[in-house]
Specification:
Radius of gyration: 17 Å
Largest sheet: 8 strands, mixed
Order of helices and strands: EEEHEHEHEHHEHEHH
Shape: globular
Structural class: alpha/beta
Helix content: 25-40%
């Protein structure tokens, strides 16, 4: 039976994960199971295992290093939905002959749309954890010659987590000085303002400095983003609904 890999930012209560922020844990989970605290691995061993697995899948005619795709889910997702989407994403990419490993960054989002605003607050909090326990180990690995390519996919509020993580990384002096890079970033139904992806956006600037390309997938009939707009009294149209702004960054 295959395993899948998760970086969890959920708190543990009575031996189970809950929908509140907690310390970062690196999990190796059997395919038929949902993540549990008992699936935790040592951080260095987890990172090495994922990198080795990715590098072993790599097409050496294209690049020396392998590919790791980090899936950052949106709000209103429970553990089983996140697992199913992560595994399906891996199967779909394999069918397209992509060689790599899909891992997920599981931040605490509740399974009720009524908790939308609280979930966004949690997303901002865990973005810092994504920096310190996700981006920083990656950056240090690249500084030491690691050639593994890292990609990010943000669905819904996951796009917000990704953008905020880059913004937080900019404030980390040690991390700022390292020449680390993320290859491809994709937003699917991204719950960020379309204007935030403009060439002159201060919030997006740290992300665009570190990535090769951003692909934004939009759907004008996305009912979840319609609810997001309603909660903001209709202001700041979302990138996942209306697409990129007319003055989008050249990497988008």
């Amino acid at each position: 039976m295959a395993d899948y890999y998760v970086i969890s930012a959920r708190n543990v209560k009575r031996g189970e994960f809950e929908a509140e922020p907690g310390k970062i844990r690196y999990l190796k989970v059997p395919e038929k199971e949902s993540p549990k605290p008992s699936h935790e691995m040592d951080a260095e061993e987890w990172i090495e295992e994922v990198r080795d697995l990715a590098d072993g899948k790599a097409d050496k005619h294209v690049a020396e290093g392998g590919d790791v795709l980090v899936f950052v889910h949106g709000y209103n997702n429970d553990a089983q939905v996140i697992r199913d989407r992560q595994l399906q994403l891996g199967k779909d990419l394999t069918a397209e002959e992509w060689r790599g490993v899909v891992v997920s960054f599981d931040w605490p989002s509740d399974n009720s749309t009524l908790n939308y605003l609280e979930d966004r607050s949690d997303a901002a909090e865990v973005a810092q954890e994504l920096v310190t326990r996700g981006i920083r180990p990656l950056a240090e690995g690249q500084a030491n010659g690691c050639q593994t390519n890292i990609h990010l996919v943000g669905h819904s509020t996951g796009a917000y987590v990704i953008m905020e993580a880059f913004a937080q990384a900019e404030k980390d002096g040690k991390l700022f000085k390292l020449a680390w890079r993320i290859a491809q970033v994709a937003f699917i139904g991204g719950d960020v303002a379309s204007a935030s992806l403009a060439a002159d956006s201060e919030w997006a600037a740290p992300m665009f400095r570190r990535i090769m390309r951003l692909t934004n997938f939009q759907n004008p009939y996305d009912h979840v983003l319609a609810a997001s707009n309603a909660k903001r009294l209709g202001v700041a149209p979302r990138a996942g609904r209306v697409g990129l702004p007319s003055n989008a960054h050249s990497k988008a």
